[in-house]
Every structure is written in structure tokens, then in C-alpha cells.
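Same chain as my last thread, 301 residues:
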Amino acid sequence: MKIDRLLTILAILLRKEQVTAPELAEQLEVTRRTIGRDIDDLCKAGFPIVTRQGAGGGISIAEGYKLDKNLMTKEELQNILIALKGLESVDATSRLGRLVQKLTPASDAVVSLKDNIVIDLASHYKDSLSKKINLLRTAIEQRRIVTFAYYSDKGVTFRTIGPYFIVFKWSAWYVFGYCMARQDFRMFKLGRLWRLNLTEEKYSIGMIPPEKIDFDAHLRDDRDMVILFDESVEYLLVEEYGPASYTKTPDGKLLFQRGYTNLDFTLRWILSFGDKAEVLAPADLRETVGKIILKTAERYN
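reply #2:
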């Protein structure tokens, strides 16, 4: 949008003593002619912008025109910039980059992000993830229905939803919306969502029941499992659940007890430890794991 571009130009000029039209054009991804028109519009609006031609020339703010930058503390501004840079890792557009540029002080002595905190919310399929997120953002802003193919343990189904939120939780990205087929609110993992299509059909916003927006309720731990782990995988348990998630037995084994809901996910997780894990309870989970191991052994034999 033009107003966003004009504000970005002002922010750049307030941070730098002088900048050239080609530099602005490259940063804002527009032509030099567009920059020229934008500068004229800013001057007409009363902003004291000075343009100097020739070698060493450029565009600058007239001396004496300053912006009070003490609205936020150093720590507050740094936290905002860190969060924005994290979101920028999954944003395929340049809008977040421009916002970071507006807020970044001219001097690293004011706020430094070097060797501090880096948040990368992308994954190995960053390009497709960014496209999905940006399409869903458009759908949410414009209240437009989306359709997609969804891959799950039940096979491939085709869904139509009115999206409400894009959620990053449990180390993955999801879209939360009203599913037309189920006539209810659902969460869909973006990694399993493909052939996403933005339709022209609109949807109306309704009230979301409080229990539906409690995203943690989607992972209720309905049953308890007890597993005996080899001490060599202790670091993996600590990484995922913390050192308080298990107790050490006299022979050095790790006794792990935790609730679980999704059987398919739980089986994959247990089997990922190979012979370093033994399920003690419940009996049906132990039996299922044993059958999978025997079937796998038969295949390799």
C-alpha cells in the first residue's frame, strides 16, 4: 500500500542522514520514478524533505526535524524486534522486513540484535510453508473460505473451512477454523495440508465456544503409559520432557510415566528409540509395540 511505503520512507530518512533514490527503490521494490512521486507527495504533505542533486547528493530530512524515540525502553524495543524477526522467517513478503526497518535504531549501541537471540519458525519446507501462511492470512483478513487436501491416518480428505487463526504450537504450524464437513471448529496441521485454494466465497464470523479455543485441549492425556528406557537416551527425554519426567532405577534404567492420547503418534515415538525402550504398561500398548517389532523382524528376515 502507498501509505505503508510513505511511512517506511520517513522511517528510513529519520534513521539515516541521507539516502539515494536508487537505494530507496531497491529496498521498497519499486521504480525510481515511484520514489520520486512519493517524495513529492511527502513534501506536499508538509514534511521537510531536502533533495540534493549531483555527486554526494541524495534525499534527507531537513536539520532540526527530529522524532522522539524514547517511547519505549531499550529492552521493550529489542523484544519487539526479536519477535518480528522470528515472524519474518516464515513471511514470504517484505512487509515485516519493512516494519523491522522502521523500528530498528540507526545505531547498534541503542539496540543490538547481533549474537543475541535468533528465532527461526520455518522448517525444511520453508517456501511452501510461507506461501500457505500468507494465503491463510489473506483468507482471514478478507473472510474468504479456503479448500485443501488433508493427509492423515484416515487417508486423504478434501476440506473446506473458514479460517480464524494461524497457530504455532507444539513445535508446528496449524490453522484453526470452522470445518464445513464436520460442522465444527477444527485444527489442521499445515505440514499435512496441500493444494490450498483461496475461494471467492465469504464466511461470517461466529462466536467460538471457549472450550474450542483451548488449543491444549486437543492433546488431552487420557491414558498413562509406563516405559523403561536405557540411560543412553536420557538426553532425548530431557530435551522433550525435562529431567523430572523420569526416575532412575537401581540398575541405571530410566522409568518414564506419562499420559498419551494419540496412539499412532505414541507408537512412532516409542519405536523411534529402537531397543532402548521397553513398554511396561498398559498391556495393550505393550502388545501392539511387540507385534510391530515382530512384523518388522519378519520382513527383514
